[in-house]
From TrEMBL:
This is Cell division protein FtsZ. Pfam families: FtsZ_C, Tubulin. Belongs to the FtsZ family. HAMAP family: FtsZ. CDD domains: FtsZ_type1. The gene is ftsZ. The lineage of its organism: Bacteria, Pseudomonadati, Pseudomonadota, Gammaproteobacteria, Alteromonadales.
Length: 361
């Protein structure tokens, strides 16, 4: 069976500030999906001039004159408010916005919360991928980053935090700074790419924007990642690896309220290995009433056997205090490929009915 494109889902990846612009430039050079749009927003016109492969929006020109926010998030926040109309126009056709920003400076930290507010006012889901600064960058930047992170986490549907310090432990100490940043960008790109493939390709078992939107609406922490399987027998290991990225601070999914596990394979996986992977997922979640949504897509051009994308939301902050109640875990396995993108109707259907999805054949 050939994967066929679903109807037009518009995913908009927006880099905010210098780090965001760099990451989006890298992603745009690696990614060529027709449903995805890339842009960068900055107070710094020189940084935007370096973004040559995607569209750019300069914010706050009247006050900052295009010279940046001087590491002051308030200046950047005001710049975003001043340029509200341009930002609203930028995001208006998106179904999902993925914001990428480095926290600790002015623009990424100050403009991102305003951009999220504007997206929410237009009823658009927002995922944020943010980096925390190196300790060596100093306490002031770290404080700015922590404050911004708290605000962003309270506003965005899901936030993935990558720590630049973890780059040091994950990579050889002799690696150059730019190579380290590119490594971080590559991790973000891999996850963003997996989300795009999941939402834009119709699979044997399909995760669509309604499923995704529902998972993103659950309150609590987020854990997400991608694991690679070299063969059929390593799907479970790939699922675990998805949550073991050394660049990411916390990846515990015990008690998550919702989980998407999207399997993309070069060829058909065996039913036994697929079931083993789902059993592993259930043991990792180990929670009551968790909605688990699984998707399976074939992608013959994949360079390895398979990839497992895991997105868990509604993760309790203190997983160790979580009271384990062994209730039934409702599992929604399928939605009908090609179902209407804004059709949220299935969410009103009781979980046990939603369970009656298509079998992998
Ligand atoms: N992973 C990664 N981190 C980066 C990159 N560039 C900067 N950073 C990190 O992101 C933080 C914020 O830096 P920028 O994005 O340049 O800052 P900004 O948001 O443009 O802020 P202002 O220039 O003060 O307006 C830095 O403290 C670094 O820790 C990058 O290309 N990749
Ligand atoms: Mg900057």
């Amino acid at each position: 069976m050939q994967n066929i494109r679903t109807e037009n889902i518009n995913i908009h990846v927006i880099g905010v500030g210098g780090c965001g612009g760099n990451a989006v430039s890298n992603m745009a050079s690696l990614c060529s999906h027709e449903n995805i749009r890339f842009s960068s927003v900055n107070t710094d016109i020189a940084a935007l001039h370096r973004c040559t492969n995607h569209e750019v929006v300069l914010i706050g020109e009247a006050t900052t004159k295009g010279y940046g926010a001087g590491a002051d998030p308030d200046v950047a926040s005001n710049a975003a408010i001043q340029s509200k109309d341009a930002l609203v126009t930028l995001i208006k056709d998106a179904d999902l916005i993925i914001i990428i920003a480095g926290l600790g400076g002015g623009t990424g930290s100050g403009a991102t919360p305003i951009l999220i507010d504007l997206a929410k006012e237009s009823d658009i889901d927002v995922m944020c991928f943010v980096t925390l600064p190196f300790k060596a960058e100093g306490g002031k930047r770290s404080d700015i980053a922590r404050n911004a992170l708290e605000t962003i986490q309270s506003k965005a549907n899901a936030t993935l935090v990558m720590s630049n310090d973890s780059l040091l432990s994950a990579l050889d100490e002799t690696v150059g700074l730019l190579s380290a940043f590119r490594h971080c960008d590559t991790q973000m790109h891999r996850i963003v790419e997996a989300i795009i493939v999941m939402l834009t390709n119709t699979g044997y078992i399909n995760v669509d924007i309604n499923d995704f939107s529902h998972i993103l609406s659950l309150e609590g922490d987020t854990a997400l990642g991608v694991g690679i399987a070299e063969d059929d027998s390593s799907l479970s290991a790939a699922l675990k690896h998805a949550l073991e990225n050394p660049l990411v601070d916390k990846q515990n999914i015990i008690g998550a309220q919702g989980v998407i596990a999207q399997l993309t394979c070069r060829e058909e996986p065996s039913l036994a290995m697929y079931e083993e992977m789902l059993a592993t997922l259930q043991s990792l979640v180990d929670g009551p009433q968790t909605l688990i949504i699984t998707g399976v897509t074939l992608s013959p051009e994949l360079p390895h056997f398979g990839e497992v994308l895991v997105i868990a939301t509604g993760v309790p902050s203190k997983a160790q205090n979580f009271e384990q109640e062994k209730n039934v875990i409702p599992m929604k396995q399928a939605s009908v490929p090609g179902s209407s993108k804004k059709d949220a109707a299935y969410l009103d259907i009781p979980a046990f009915v939603r369970l009656q999805g298509r079998e992998l054949s």
